Amino acid sequence: MKSTMVVFVALLFLELFTLVTMINISFCIGNPNVGCVDSERQALLKLKQDLSDPSNRLASWNIGDGDCCAWDGVVCNNFTGHVLQLNLGNPNPNYGTGSKLVGKINPSLFDLKHLIHLDLSDNDFQGIQTPSYLGSLKNLRYLNLSGAEFAGVIPHQLGNISNLQYLDLSKSYYELQVESISWLSGLSFLEHLDLSLVDLTKSSDGLVTINSLPSLKVLKLSYCELHHFPSLPSTNFSSLKALDLSGNHFNNSLFQYSSWVFGLRNLVFFDLSDNEFHGKIPSGLGNLTFLRHLDLSSNEFNSAIPGWLSKLNDLEFLSLRELGGQIPTSFVRLCKLTSIDVSYVKLGQDLSQVLDIFSSCGAYALESLVLSGCHICGHLTNQLGQFKSLHTLELRDNSLSGPLPPALGELSSMKNLDLFNNTLDGAIPMSLGQLSHLELLDLSNNRLNGTLSEIHFVNLTKLTSFSAFGNSLIFKVNQSWVPPFQLEKLRLRSCHLGPQFPSWLRSQKHLFILDISNTRISDTIPRWFWNSISQYVYLNLSTNQIYGEIPNCDRPLPLVPSPGLLDLSNNALSGSIFHLICKRENEADNIYVYLKLSKNYFSGDIPDCWMNWPNLLVLNLGLSILNLRSNKLHGSLPIQLCRLNSLQILDVAHNSLSGIIPRCINNFTAMAAANSSDQDNAISYIRGGVSDVFEDASVVTKGFMVEYNTILNLVRIMDISNNNFSGEVPKELTNLMGLQSLNFSHNLFTGKIPENIGNMRSIESLDFSMNQLSGKVPQSMSSLSFLNHLNLSYNNLTGKIPSSTQLQSMDASSFAGNNLCGAPLPNCPEKNALVPEDRNENGNEDEDEVDWLLYVSMALGFVLGFWCFMGPLLINRRWRYKYCYFLDGCVDRFGCPVRKCY
Ligand SMILES: *[C@@H]1O[C@H](CO)[C@@H](O)[C@H](O)[C@H]1NC(C)=O
Ligand SMILES: *[C@@H]1O[C@H](CO)[C@@H](O)[C@H](O)[C@H]1NC(C)=O
Ligand SMILES: *[C@@H]1O[C@H](CO)[C@@H](O)[C@H](O)[C@H]1NC(C)=O
Ligand SMILES: *[C@@H]1O[C@H](CO)[C@@H](O)[C@H](O)[C@H]1NC(C)=O
Ligand SMILES: *[C@@H]1O[C@H](CO)[C@@H](O)[C@H](O)[C@H]1NC(C)=O
Ligand SMILES: *[C@@H]1O[C@H](CO)[C@@H](O)[C@H](O)[C@H]1NC(C)=O
Ligand SMILES: *[C@@H]1O[C@H](CO)[C@@H](O)[C@H](O)[C@H]1NC(C)=O
Ligand SMILES: *[C@@H]1O[C@H](CO)[C@@H](O)[C@H](O)[C@H]1NC(C)=O
């Protein structure tokens, strides 16, 4: 990846250099700094007006400050004072939503007629149409709208910017399309074209146009839905140096009918990853002898790693992820290789064999070695210490065993060390503390033991992400320790941190993901921590013995910059949850979508200040969960709860709540909607920056605990079991047609089961057991075709169980403790049954057949429901890639193409 960047950055610099030199030549003759042109200053101020700027990047853009040439991001011609460059690209694109400019582009941009360089990349223009008037900025040479969240059809007017040399329209999360790209033919000076993630389905012959661009050096068409390339009579763009065709649907016909590809002799960078190539790797690639970067990963090639690859001896980066075979020993000749990725190739080799091959040039030049999931066994030995240039070592998901060698400390360039999911054991060597360049360290899911102390971190000044969960490590540092690093992510689940709350966290001002669940903390949460809670997007303190009350904080709680997770469950917190729920004003942008407070000793009423929440939830940040399970809450459900109309999970089970269920319960519109835009929710959610919130949302359904990992947004659950609720089950409940699991068991409900219960077509799990319900089992229940868990036991129900495949397929225990009869219970007494019931059964014969069909579709339905969400991620790679792109750090969840981060 590094080399990819290097190549691109190098080319970019080349272009910029040309540009800058040109500016110098044309303008350095005059009197510098005439100051800014007033009309352009006004234009910039208007531009600022339409943008929200949470990180204050435009702070210098002041009405009071006259010379706009001195403003951040603005570069003027020193002679005429005209604005030449606008550099508004987001400097921290991977940092959540924090540094984005958000809003519209004021058309006053059009007044900056002298612009030659416009960079708006990685901001959030919220899916507005790409402004067509950009086409009238005729002097533009550089236009970068990458990741700027424009949508719709790319305006053909861009073809009027005839001087354009650099055009980047890639990486919009919104759908960007082209009707045709014939307009590109007007851009004869174009050298760099990036349309990655733009839907080019309608322009499958676009390459003919692109081929007419004689100056093109860099072409990136990654994840563009391209299927086949036309065969070209001749290639005009023989000057092409970089070609990225990854993530399309190309198969072998690209090679058969478009052998021009192998004529691109100047190619330095070639990416064909994540396509549909199969069979052998075409040996024509061996003719591209200038190649320095070659990525063939994630295809269906079924050949082993070919030995002739070693002919490409300029190769610096090689990714063969998911190919077959072993690393050929001829690779010893690839002395310039600095980066190799063969992850998920079943090498089955011993680590030392692999290291031997890459050390045989004697240079130990390797910078990046990615061997994840390679079935590699053996030990990490001191041999590793000789790879002094190594900055990335990824060995996750292998079978490495034994201890970490002390020579680890000699890897003086190391930045990313990922040893996740092996069977490494023993203590962590002190020498770890010498890796002064280390940024990311993942030792999770191993068998490491022993104690981690200050010495292990002494020189880790650059560490930003540390994971060591799933080991038996003891974290023992002085209470007054001030670590040398500023972490962003820390995951220590199941390590031993306690009994005191780790006071060194106080120094960590950038931490936004923190998991110290199950770490034996037996302490109160210090006030400084409560006050810092707003910095977390993911905060998991569950399964400790944290006690005390939630204080009334200086800063109200919770206050996160984007939707996130707060899990305080399974502790010994007590008192009221008032301050957590209630101290909220004007916080439209701030909401935890996942709030888990279960298994504590919270007491008192459920506060009736939910009115503070609804604005937030209506903002489509719902995926919202309210879990107050297993506390000592008493009183009734406040009617204000009904204002939470994005609520998807309501879990107040195992409390001492009483009273009736408010009739406004049908106001939970998220539960009522069977089809909401789940995917949009998921995306808008994910765009908040963290994938981890999907982890570990456990809810009780279908009679047992199910971990609804990753599919939370499909689940709509109400569990009010084990309380003292009384009165009738409100009829309004049956309006919640999206509800999938309903548990009213172990309460004091009386009256009948609502006649229309059959309306709740999405119900999969229904539990009314241990109440005092009477009357018949409603006939409509037989149409609950998704039902696969039912418990009506121990009520006072009477009569015959309605016929349907669903109900009859339940276990008899589902109906026990009532006065019911008929399958699956014993038949009803003849006398009662004969006249009315027999007729009923005859009348039902057709229905039974229908039910049988429903039964079949039930299975289908579940599968479809589940795949509605996951399906597109797995089937549509472009979509999946977009999704992954917004996942924090491009983690390899959801089958994401790892290492495909730009
Ligand atoms: C442009 O001019 C400035 C000062 O006149 C000089 O420092 C700089 O090196 C020049 N840049 C290029 C790329 O020639
Ligand atoms: C314009 O002037 C500023 C300050 O004097 C200088 O830093 C900058 O390099 C100049 N720009 C050009 C294009 O010469
Ligand atoms: C590779 O180069 C050789 C010799 O120049 C040539 O004969 C062969 O056709 C080329 N292969 C391809 C696929 O272009
Ligand atoms: C750990 O790695 C093995 C392969 O060695 C893989 O099968 C397994 O799924 C991985 N476990 C996790 C939790 O990623
Ligand atoms: C930490 O770094 C400093 C300066 O780079 C060096 O002098 C010192 O020896 C290092 N300490 C350890 C324990 O590596
Ligand atoms: C760590 O584990 C090793 C073997 O797995 C064992 O021999 C050693 O006693 C353990 N050390 C500690 C401190 O638990
Ligand atoms: C139901 O929701 C609507 C908004 O959708 C709200 O205006 C109304 O007050 C809610 N009803 C109750 C009883 O809370
Ligand atoms: C059960 O229902 C019958 C009538 O349907 C009623 O007479 C009886 O009192 C009820 N029992 C309980 C415990 O509610």
UniProtKB/TrEMBL annotation:
Regions annotated as coiled coil: none
Organism: Citrus sinensis
Signal peptide as annotated in the record: 1-22
GO CC aspect terms: plasma membrane
Membrane topology (UniProt): Single-pass type I membrane protein
Pfam family for this entry, one: LRRNT_2
Domain Leucine-rich repeat-containing N-terminal plant-type: 38-77
Membrane spanning stretches: 852-875
Family according to the record: Belongs to the RLP family.
Name recorded for this polypeptide: Leucine-rich repeat-containing N-terminal plant-type domain-containing protein
Keywords of this entry: Cell membrane, Glycoprotein, Leucine-rich repeat, Membrane, Receptor, Repeat, Signal, Transmembrane, Transmembrane helix
Predominant location: membrane
Cellular localization per UniProt: Cell membrane
Annotated PANTHER family: LRR RECEPTOR-LIKE KINASE, LRR RECEPTOR-LIKE SERINE_THREONINE-PROTEIN KINASE FLS2
